[in-house]
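Bumping with the actual sequence this time:
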Amino acid sequence: MKISVELTLTPLHDDFEPAIINFIKKLRASKLKVLENPLSTQVYGDYDEVMQVLTSEIKDAFELIERGLLYMKIVKSDRHDYEPHF
């Protein structure tokens, strides 16, 4: 089954950019489709593959930050080519 995941990593300390950049670069290095914008990162692919990558990379990201939040939305479909029709 294909899914789309929107992620927002928010370290709760100063000098937060390195942790976010590292997280995004590791997602880019996976075989998954990854799109970014200034507010979030979207990951698209097969459920099992996406969740396997996210489980590992979220754990690594949390180990690099003192405190933080990760917001995640999951949609059951591949929405990477969505374009508004209005």
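The tokens above came from a reply further down the thread. The beta strands are 2-11, 33-36, 41-46, 68-75.
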